[in-house]
Amino acid sequence: MRKPIIAGNWKMNNTIAETEKLVTELIPMVADAKADVVICVPYTSIAKAVELTKGTNIHVGAENVHWAEKGAFTGEISANMLVELGVEYVVIGHSERRQYFGETDQTVNMRTKAALAHGLKPIICVGETLEEREGNLTEEVVVRQTVEAFKDIDANELANIVIAYEPVWAIGTGKTATSEQANDTIKIIRDTMAKLYGDKTAEEVVRIQYGGSMNPANVKELMAMPEIDGGLIGGASLVAEKFSQVVNY
Asked: Which is the catalytic residue, given 59, 63, 66, 94?
């Protein structure tokens, strides 16, 4: 019942020229995709990506958004600025933002509310570090992050929100959670959403991606898991052929 969603997170990669090349290659490769297809691109590439994907099945996202409408926040971008560019999705609370740029559970919630207020679709990231996993704190961490992210968010908004489970220890390290580990943790997140919004909503509406090094080699096994509704793809999203293989798993 839950439609799969595969989103590429380009991170700090691709100039406008590189964006044009990648998106042009990608369009025909994913034209018949059964999943929703999203590319989350750097701010400088948004306008070009939106222009190129008009009339296609590819949706464009940004990689972050500020919670304020405007103001003295040097280097930040507001939700209405993204909307003006034609952005549909936005990644919020990515582990790299938490790790390097002081993102907290509270700021994730604030950004999410700002995105929703402007009609953007948040992809909210949650996930534990290696230290937390080895300390048997995975459940505690992802439950806390999920509960805080969804504070004061109405059930009516859930169809417009995607959750991405990102084990921090499996991002850019080449390590991948086993499909069972990924599925079990995503089940914890879904159970948390059931407590917040009810079983039916959690089962039928809430889409949860896996975001730890999903690639052409492991996508089928991961997507066969009952709780996994898609992927937030890093490295593999930078190569049209690899990303299309994941999309068309």
From this structure: 94
Strands (E) located in the chain: 5-9, 36-40, 58-62, 89-92, 121-126, 162-165, 207-210, 230-233
Residue type, 139: E
- Of 134, 141, 225, 129, which is closest to residue 170 (Cα–Cα)? 129
Beta bridge partners of 23: none
The tally of CA atoms less than 13 A away on the side-chain side of residue 158 is 23
Cβ 213 vs Cβ 175: under 8 Å: yes
Write the pLDDT tens digit of every residue in 108-166.
999 999 999 999 999 999 999 988 998 999 999 999 999 999 999 999 999 999 999 99
Q: Measured in whole angstroms, how far is the alpha carbon of residue 26 from the centre of its chain? A: 19
Q: Check if 94 is active-site.
A: yes
Q: How far apart are CA 140 and CA 24, in angstroms?
A: 43
**Are the C-beta atoms of 213 and 234 separated by less than 8 Å?**
yes
For the whole model, what pTM was predicted? 0.97
Number of H-type helices and E-type strands within the chain: 11, 8
Q: C-alpha dihedral over 207, 211, 213, 217, to 10 degrees?
A: 0
Beta strands in 118-221 (DSSP E): 121-126, 162-165, 207-210
Q: Which sign does the torsion angle of CA 37, 168, 213, 26 carry?
A: positive
Does residue 166 carry a catalytic annotation?
A: yes
Task: Write out the two tokens for 58.
Answer: 């590819």
Task: List the Cα angle 210/107/102 in 5-degree steps.
Answer: 85
